[in-house]
Amino acid sequence: MESSPASSARPVLATPAQLQEGVACLSRGGYFREASLEMALSILTESAARMSGVERVSIWALTDDQSELCCLELFELSTQRHAGGECITASHYPAYFNALRSESCIVADDAGRHPATAEFVGNYLARHRISAVLDTPIHIRGEFQGVLSLEQVATREPWNPAHRLFAHAVANLVTLALVEFEAEQARSQAESVARHLRTLANGAGSQPLPAAV
């Protein structure tokens, strides 16, 4: 098998102390009020990959009909590349979707053998040369809405508790970005409605009064 940039320049996973510092650094960032949702998610995936040493970090959102998870943002560490748009279907990967709904996270040190990710062996894992997966569900108002995925490529190291805490912290920041985006949309909609009402009121006020009978 030919080597790829990911295998020839293997990322080194961060130590627990480095991961703790990474979480503190991310938490201090003002991404949510100063950037668009797309920019905030881009910053979070790239920062998480660099801080953790994980080759692929991605954010996926559940579609309204809950039939698919679609990738909003992906960062690949070795190529320094941002991407997105790939989707996975619940009907093709039922064990994975069930695990995301029932578990706090999926910790697959060997993605090809873990019960929740073994369904991906002949497709997604092989296509991206993924060896180990740490997936943390994203919940909004208590409902499963997406997932933060950390993926090692070609070679693998066991995930330790510090990686799980790091992934959970980043997932919380993703949730905050999504909630802030939702709130901003609601504010914009409310302002639009208010402007429309003022326009109607001003128009009504400028109409002449009906003549007395």
What distinguishing features does this structure have?
single chain; 213 residues; alpha+beta; seven-stranded antiparallel beta sheet; 7 helices; 7 strands; 46% helix; globular; disordered N terminus
Structural description of this entry:
By secondary structure, the protein is of the alpha+beta class. The chain has a single domain (5-178), classed as Beta-Lactamase. The protein has 7 helices and 7 strands; from the N terminus they run ααααββββαβαββα. The chain has helices at residues 5-8, 16-28, 31-34, 37-52, 94-102, 121-128, 161-205, and strands at residues 56-62, 68-76, 81-83, 87-89, 106-108, 130-140, 143-153. Strands 1, 2, 3, 4, 5, 6 and 7 form a 7-stranded antiparallel beta sheet that branches. Strand 2 (68-76) and strand 3 (81-83) form a beta hairpin. Helix 2 (16-28) packs antiparallel against helix 4. The longest helix has 45 residues, at 161-205. It starts with a helix and ends in an 8-residue tail after the last helix. Residues 1-8 have low confidence and may be disordered.
